[in-house]
Amino acid sequence: MIVRDIRLAEDTKREVKAQNWTSTRLLLSEDNLGFSFHETIVKPDTETRIWYKNHLEAVYCIEGSGEIEEENGTRHKIFPGIIYALDKHDKHVLRAFTQMRMICVFNPALVGEEVHDENGIYPLLEYTRGTT
Ligand code: 9YT
User: Fold this and answer.
1) Which of 25, 27, 71, 81 is spaced 20 to 30 Å from 10 by Cα?
2) Residues 20-67: tens digit of each pLDDT
């Protein structure tokens, strides 16, 4: 069994900071669950263009408000209780009107330190157990 306290991840490599968000990665590829599990804080008044070409992601909002815009222009409001799942590697734009706290699950699991590249993509990294 794995038991972790998010407070102990502060200022460690599990806490990954990008311009518009901070993601605390509580469960990663090395934990061998088949997914990774993160808490993401999205900064207020931000707009982030994202395309998880290599991953599927589900995102559940537990605090704040914003919207997600699909590639075809459809917008969905986001507030506590809303989940969205990028089941087709959907390109999207995420807008935070206030600070948003999101619970995010990735498949395949992230290795840990991924941040978006210029296209909003995470590379497909592999966790190499026992190698340097
Ligand atoms: C909501 C969202 O996708 N934000 C980007 C960060 C990502 N959730 C992550 O790496 O945890």
Assistant:
1) 81
2) 999 999 999 999 999 999 999 999 999 999 998 889 999 999 999 999
How many whole angstroms separate alpha carbon 81 and alpha carbon 11? 28
Domain total in the chain: 1
Look at residues 100, 57, 97 and name the one whose alpha carbon lies nearest to residue 81.
100
What is the bridge-based pairing of β-strands 83-85 and 36-42?
Answer: unpaired
Cα 28 to ligand 1 centroid, rounded to whole Å: 14
CATH of residue 60's domain is 2.60.120.10
Q: Residue 94: CB within 6 Å of ligand 1?
A: yes
28 lines ligand 1 (CB under 6 A): no
Tokens of 125: 């990294």
